[in-house]
């Protein structure tokens, strides 16, 4: 618990107490303001759903499915939402508790994380069940009355997702110290996506459960949902393997070129800002993130003595370093999931006026991904503090990019970065604080194209 900030501990405790207050009426002890809607707790149904949920929690985290299942997959929402549609609010709040407390947790402190997840799901289920009941959902579900029941069910799903997002934002503020203005950004859509899909399965399960065929019919819904979760997990395991491959390559570059440590990740982040500002789709944005992160992977083929040289490069040495885009392209050519990122790795030092390298492409001949990464690369190079020079302020760096737009950079990419930074800001970090041997201050390895006035290079 000592690793958890004090305000986060208070916040988690408050949510846990709220979850407990939501569940107390199920035991026949109404709490003022939290009635059990006059319904007796159907303990057999609560127990069966709780056991099902706990079992599904373990299955989604087993090695066969994928031990590190992505968030939203590890929580088996169909069972929880079936409880929302079938049970009184206080009883619905109990369904998630055993499974959440017994769930596998990879990171410390494990019991704090288990308690948090149990409390969060309990509160979300209680609120969703209240909304469902207030809109007449239980009667429509038992009838069943289609399509009327879809309205209360949809409202319950929205309420469930909203509570998850709201509570997660609170954790981001108190435990992770995320600024309040950013803590809740994008949380609700991310929470809604899996809950909405699983909500339909939960509703089907509740309708079949209340049919003449009883709970056994409702359990049949779990079979196709289990198969779909397994397929989804395989997809995310493959993505995790991709991320591990990229991490290994970037770490190797950082170890070799210590003066640009962390540069690759920031170029990936700036590339994403540009891509999103230009309205690119998620898949394209992901490709550009990969391109930014791996743009300098070819430095693994450059002699370390040149990357760490404490002085100007000779023309011959510069020509060797200028081979790094081609080295990088060769290294990643067989990695299929990178897609157009490979072209960005090869061409990110090309220039709009045709004076860049390795092939002297000009204008639209340069792949779009490479034009994005070129701007992101130069921007981070200027705004990062390294051991051999101080960072330039962001406005100064943007002015320099604008001055070189049309000659070195694509003006559309420069404008997109400026608009994105105005909206989201930028927080450069020190990329290296390791002094050179003997305390000397090394000069920057220079990687410009043939000398052109106003050249900016990363």
Overview of this protein structure:
61% of the residues lie in helices and 0% in strands. The protein contains 20 helices and no strands. The protein has 2 domains: 232 residues, no CATH class; 183 residues, Hypothetical protein af1432, CATH 1.10.3210. With 458 residues, it is mainly alpha-helical. Keywords: Membrane, Signal, Transmembrane, Transmembrane helix.
Write a short abstract of this structure.
The protein has 458 residues and is mostly helical. It contains 20 helices and no strands.
In round numbers, the mean pLDDT is 81
Provide the gyration radius in Å. Answer: 27 Å
Helix/strand-derived class? mainly alpha
Q: Catalogue the unreliable spans.
A: 33-38, 63-74, 430-455
Query: In oligomeric terms, what are we looking at?
Result: single chain
Largest sheet: none
Amount of beta strand: under 5%
- Give the overall shape: elongated
Distance between the termini: 43 Å
- Count of alpha/pi helices: 20
Instruction: List the domain count as a whole number.
Output: 2
* Strand and helix order: HHHHHHHHHHHHHHHHHHHH
Helix content: 55-70%
Protein name: HD-GYP domain-containing protein
InterPro entries: Cyclic_di-GMP/3'3'-cGAMP_PDE, HD/PDEase_dom, HD_domain, HD_GYP_dom, HDIG_dom
Keywords: Membrane, Signal, Transmembrane, Transmembrane helix
